[in-house]
Amino acid sequence: MKISRHHTQGLAKGVIWVAAFSTLAVMFWILYQVLREGLPLLHPDFFIQAPRQMGRAGGIFSTIIGTIALTVVAIVIATPLGVGTAIFLQEYTRESGVSRVIRFGTDCLAGVPSIIFGLFGFVFFVIFLRMGWSILSGGLTLATMILPTIICTAEEAIKSVPYTYREVSFALGGTRWQTIRKMVLPNAFPGILTGVLLGVGRSVGETAAVILTAGSSFITPDSLFSPIRTMAVHFYILAREGISMEMAYATGAALILLILAINTVANWMMYRYAHKA
Amino acid sequence: MKRGKRSRWIYGVGILLLAVLLPGCQRQHGGLSVVGSTSVEPFAGALAEEYMNQHSREKIFVQGGGSSAGIQAVRTGAAEVGMSSRNLMDSEKDLIAVPIIYDAIAVIVHRDNPLNDLTLNQIRKIFSAEITRWSELGGKNHPLTLVTREEGSGTREAFQKLIMGKKEISLGALVQDSNGAIRQVVADDRNAIGYISLGLVNDRVKALKIGGIEPNIENIQHHRYKIVRPFLFVFKSNPQGLAKDFLDYILSPAGQKLLVQEGLISMNPIPEPKKEARR
Amino acid sequence: MSKEKILEKSFLLIALSSISILALIAFFIFQQGIPLIWKVGLNSFLLGDRWFPSKESFGIFPMIVGSFWVTLGSLIVGVPLGVACAVFLCELIPPTIAMILRPMIQLLGAIPSVIYGFWGLIVLVPLIRNSLGGPGLSILAGSLVLGIMILPTIISISEDSLRALPRTYKEGALSLGATHWQTIWRVLLPAARSGIVASIILGMGRAIGETMAMIMILGNATQLPNSILSSARTLTTNIGIEMGYASGDHRQALFATGVVLFFIIMGLNSLALIISRKGRA
Predict the structure, then answer these.
(1) Does B13 sit within 8 Å of A80, measured CB to CB?
(2) Whole-complex ipTM
(3) Which chains lie within 8 Å of chain A at 3 or more CB pairs, if any?
(4) SS (H, E, C) B4-44
(5) How confident is the model over A143-160, as pLDDT tens digits?
């Protein structure tokens, strides 16, 4: 008996519905579980106090500082380098064998697992340059991790600015730098921002490389050379050691909220700039 | 964010980078880095917290990583103090080790495990996978789940030396990188058996008697329970400044009292045959 | 004129610095790792099945097998479900609902992997242990969690590929009398193939590189795994667990593992390049 194609369609669509629905349900359920257990535990004290008793009590203040400090150092170093490189590749050189090799290399390093960067950062920054486990070591390592991403997205953003914009500027007598500064960069800004925010997201969530380079001490830092624990690392340690499930859930919920905030800001900025032009 | 300042910003960052990346730059944080054994870590953390409560301007940064990692960190200068839960090896004897307290290793099983007692020989056979099922020990016909520490762990090293002897720990054993993680696994898995620092045993796991001897303070102080190892603070050279002050605090009656309260064993009453300490 | 020249030179400097930083990392890893591979021998490094650093045994075959099975498992979970979700979002639900779901899926992709690892540890591992046996800390648990982690990547990119197809494809097929499903299955999906494959390779890259969540739920036994319920190590978790204390040959062996990973990723990248070029033709 030949099954009519309408029956096939019904069956296929049914399967897809069930598969997709249950997949999405499971994924959101994971988030929901952490939030459900953790959100009730989030009160202002939690964010203001530092961890005590190895994390069994107190809050996550120092880890918030650590997360911010590490991210800021990474972004401050990687963004100018990355955007500058993208500007150079797109505006100052022609498409050639050399630039293709450079791009391929960058793409490759974008895919290299974070643990390798952690390896490098540990041996190079922590030990060889004698920086020890510190915000600086961690931030520099994170910067090298997000550099390929920023170069890539900045290049895409700059490339997508129509050439006519540049032509207009040149026709009016603008120099190359003036063109870049006033026509290309402002229009490429949303794309570049996306790359930067991707970098921020990665810095916040990175654990392996951070433990290896910024250490895992949870005392509030007093300088760039102090070791620091980020929220992701704190969560990891609490979860593995079974020190306190409540603290783990609470930290996890805080982490999710932070990511949610970053994503929302990113989407809002994209929306605003897309509608400004 | 205006593009005009960008080039100035780039130059500024460039100079900052240069200043920071110059080799041999000084370590400028005013605190003490204490790194190493995950067995010692919670206790060092408690001591540090207490010390910082009394001396609010000092900072002591404690982190884990394992005994070998700590000893290495001291050697390379990445940390001022290393924590170790095993004695120094011959190749490490150029460093200075100070025992701060003693601790036993407990072999643990799930809290509902009917077993209470194992002989040393049985433990050896279990961890080398010569015994593979609980039925061989009088229990149900379930496979044993072995849990061990990673190779750089002082606890593993001590376990190897004091219990396993020449036998290797099975390659099929699960590996966890801290005492707390082993405790978690054993607490959740009825078929699991592992070993952790006695000071970290809680009511979620059961510590087994070895050869009929219960791992408790009395048996340890009377040398009946022999699976004991020192917690060491390791230094590159004679401790000075904050390191010395912190060490003095730990060795003082107040510091020792804190440690004993947490379940560790004071070294004073034990007349011990081998002297590992070097001052 | 000279200000322009200065600026051009500065950008050149910046670009060179970026490239040299990245080159430095690659060079460093190779410089540390290759001598060890030379010393131990490529065959016994890649195919040796004993990893016992304290006894100078550096065979990473168990880790290669571990990485392979965990990644394969994650693809088995992630690809069908991911593509199904992409089709679901693009074709089967009203666009307004899809517009709400899309940023939520993006959010799921940005969640740190340790959170997924935690969920795996709390929910999946006991489930596997109680219903299927074994310690629960297993390749199966790892594959499931990794599969869930790469789903947002596969869904987003596949869906983008489907949406980017010209409307004429769909309209043409439907006007020729094809059912909706026939259109999806025989016209749209094949046309979006290169984008879907790209998403799979990206997901694969993420799966191979995952470390922390895998340390939490794979059990990390160094033995060659013999079933999906066995504990295992991947190339990345091996580095993650031992890096802190490794020195001398041991540390170089970990860098050598990094070299192997580097080549695997490079291979995947090249594959992606070839496929996307084919797709464009």
Answers:
(1) yes
(2) 0.89
(3) B, C
(4) HHHHHHHHHHHHHHHHHHCCCCCCCCCCEEEEECCCCHHHH
(5) 999 998 898 888 888 888
